[in-house]
Design brief:
Organism: Sphingopyxis flava
Number of helices: 18
Number of strands: 2
Distance between the termini: 27 Å
Subcellular location: Membrane
Keywords: Membrane, Transmembrane, Transmembrane helix
Strand content: under 5%
Largest sheet: 2 strands, antiparallel
Number of domains: 1
Membrane topology: Multi-pass membrane protein
Main location: membrane
Radius of gyration: 20 Å
Low-confidence stretches: 411-420
Order of helices and strands: HHHEHHHHHHHHHEHHHHHH
Strand order of the largest sheet: 1-2
């Protein structure tokens, strides 16, 4: 079934449901604000683009989603591919690749390809998730330690070389801000899990930088003031040569958006007993990835952590996700200038914690106890993700995983993702 869940939930919608959705939407927006800014900066773009992505993409996904509680926006999984596309083809190239990915997702939705997620080996999912986490962490070291490294290369080995060459510019102040923000996030999540932890931690660190006049880069010092409204839609320049050149990136974006959104929907179903519609979910991702880049946004998908926050906060219909997008728009219109005071080491801390959560170190021992072929598949996917290319890692990992499954006569059980 391809009908959005919003149509079903409106049949018996009530003031009580709206109140719960509105409160949940506000809670998710407070989580999303610093995270979207940090993801956009790590992707080689600007903070404003991250907020635009959350507003347009988040609203469209909630409006058309096959899940009752899905929250859409930019996610850490895209940082690797987006950074590379922007470096090689510019922001205009990313827009073309994202629109292509959206069209691929729409086609996949009409072909009911959402059910195929069960065929992707779990070892591949875990391998490239850990690999992406490692790349995200490495991308934040410059801001976390205040290094003056200039434009850092996308590839891991040249990136490490560039960071090592800039080691003389290490800033103890920036490192202290990063460490303090990480500690605040971890402690608050343990002691006050219902509070807007990221906003409190980043806000407190940024306030300390401002009040003590610490020599630390901020969003405003590097990117200038944020615009106070949404940009007008813009159609990129498209040629046949460009479409062919960007097709591998578009396929990778489509794969990541499809897989992460379906994982998020499955996790949410388990949390509140729902049942998402895979085809409608892929269509929603497709619509969002066609429309969002027209406003200059990044690729968008269902965000697992934000969706889980929505469920825990009491959101039960797509209205919560729409409220989340509207709250971020309100902040952009009314208080966007405050974003300029955010300290970059504090935002780096947010993504370092995100990377640690993605890698799930508490499950590494479990991964190591897998059968030798699954363990080898996980390690191969991880290594290819970090040191080669995400497209190659996904292609090789999925192909080898399906071969291993075929050799076992299809006897291995179809996997179901855990809550991440």
């Amino acid at each position: 079934m391809r009908r959005p869940k919003l149509f079903d939930t409106m049949r018996d919608y009530s003031w009580r449901l709206f109140r719960a959705d509105a409160l949940a939407g506000i809670s998710v927006a407070l989580v999303a604000l610093p995270l979207c800014i940090a993801i956009a900066i790590a992707s080689g773009s600007t903070p404003f683009v991250g907020l635009v992505t959350a507003i347009i993409g988040g609203f469209v996904i909630s409006l058309t989603s096959g899940s009752r509680v899905q929250i859409g926006g930019p996610t850490g999984a895209f940082i690797v591919v987006v950074y590379g596309v922007i470096q090689d083809h510019g922001m205009d190239g990313l827009i073309v690749a994202t629109i292509m990915a959206g069209l691929i997702l729409i086609l996949a939705g009409y072909l009911r390809a959402g059910r195929l997620i069960a065929l992707i080996p779990e070892a591949v999912i875990n391998g490239f998730t850990i690999g992406i986490a490692a790349i995200i962490a490495a991308s934040q070291l410059a801001d976390a330690m205040g290094l003056s490294a200039g434009k850092v290369p996308a590839d891991m080995i040249p990136k490490i070389e560039a960071l090592w060459a800039a080691r003389g510019s290490f800033s103890g102040t920036a490192f202290a801000i990063t460490a303090a923000t990480i500690a605040a996030i971890l402690l608050l999540r343990r002691w006050r899990p219902r509070w807007p932890v990221l906003v409190i931690a980043v806000g407190a660190a940024s306030l300390a930088v401002l009040s003590l006049n610490l020599p630390v880069d901020t969003v405003g010092s590097r990117f200038g003031a944020l615009p106070s409204g949404l940009p007008a839609p813009h159609w990129p320049q498209v040629t046949i040569e460009r479409l062919v050149e960007l097709l591998p990136s578009a396929l990778t974006i489509a794969f990541l958006a499809g897989v992460e959104s379906l994982l998020s929907a499955i996790v949410a179903d388990r949390m509140f007993g729902g049942q998402h519609r895979p085809s409608a979910e892929l269509l929603a991702q497709g619509y969002a990835n066609v429309l969002t880049p027209l406003f200059g946004g990044l690729p968008v998908t269902g965000a697992i952590a934000r969706t889980a926050t929505n469920v825990r906060a009491g959101g039960r219909t797509p209205v919560a996700g729409m409220v989340h997008a509207l709250v971020i728009l309100f902040v952009l219109l009314v208080a966007g200038g405050l974003a300029g005071a955010l300290a970059l080491p504090a935002l780096a801390a947010v993504l370092l914690v995100t990377a640690a959560n993605m890698a799930e170190p508490e499950k590494w021992r479990e991964h190591w106890s897998l059968p030798w072929d699954e363990r080898l598949l996980l390690l191969l996917t991880l290594i290819l993700t970090v040191f080669a290319d995400l497209t190659i890692a996904i292609g090789v990992g999925v192909a080898l995983g399906l071969v291993l499954r075929w050799r076992k006569g299809g006897r291995t059980a179809l996997w179901t993702p855990r809550e991440r």
